[in-house]
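[step 3/7] inverse_fold.run input=structure_tokens len=177
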């Protein structure tokens, strides 16, 4: 391994390496190449590559010892993390928005039911029907709006309309089955 390192040094600098040789390489020399040469030229064998195959592997992966490569990998990982964070935040906002919409819808439905239950039987029937239709549009499967309309019709003394409405409502909501 030392011999390969010395040969590479000689090929690169044009000088032989010995104990008196200044091992300074040209400015602009690849960081990866410097790392591999320095490790191959260590005086103690245990600090060198354990085999020529290991050194070849290091040469094949020389880019991994470059500062620019490591910086690029760091930036890529940072971008991945930031994108993942934005995706998670986006999903959280979508979920929160959906829950808020459902809550507001239920509150609006409850308001309609309250208005219907407090509606004066001598009041405008068209206004009552508008509130009823709004409630049914919000929650078509909920029974409370249908119950309030049936009670309203009953309190007004419209018994035949009440029976017709209840029968129609039971078939529409599926409670009649």
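[step 3/7] decode complete -> sequence:
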């Amino acid at each position: 391994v030392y011999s390969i390192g010395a040969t590479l040094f000689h090929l690169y600098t044009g000088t032989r390496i010995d104990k008196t040789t200044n091992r300074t390489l040209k400015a602009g020399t690849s960081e990866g190449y410097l790392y591999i040469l320095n490790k191959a030229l260590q005086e103690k064998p245990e600090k060198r590559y354990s085999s020529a195959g290991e050194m070849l592997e290091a040469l094949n992966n020389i880019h991994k010892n470059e500062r620019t490569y490591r910086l690029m990998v760091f930036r890529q990982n940072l971008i991945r993390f930031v994108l993942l964070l934005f995706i998670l935040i986006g999903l959280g906002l979508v979920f929160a928005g959906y829950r808020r919409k459902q809550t507001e819808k239920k509150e609006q439905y409850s308001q309609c039911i309250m208005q219907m239950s407090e509606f004066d039987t001598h009041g405008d029937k068209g206004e009552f029907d508008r509130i009823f239709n709004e409630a049914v549009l919000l929650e078509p499967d909920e029974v409370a709006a249908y119950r309030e309309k049936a009670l309203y019709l009953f309190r007004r003394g419209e018994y035949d309309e009440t029976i017709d409405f209840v029968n129609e409502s039971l078939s529409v909501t599926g409670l009649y089955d």
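[step 4/7] annotate
The chain has a mean pLDDT of 87.
Residues 93 and 99 are 10 Å apart (CA to CA).
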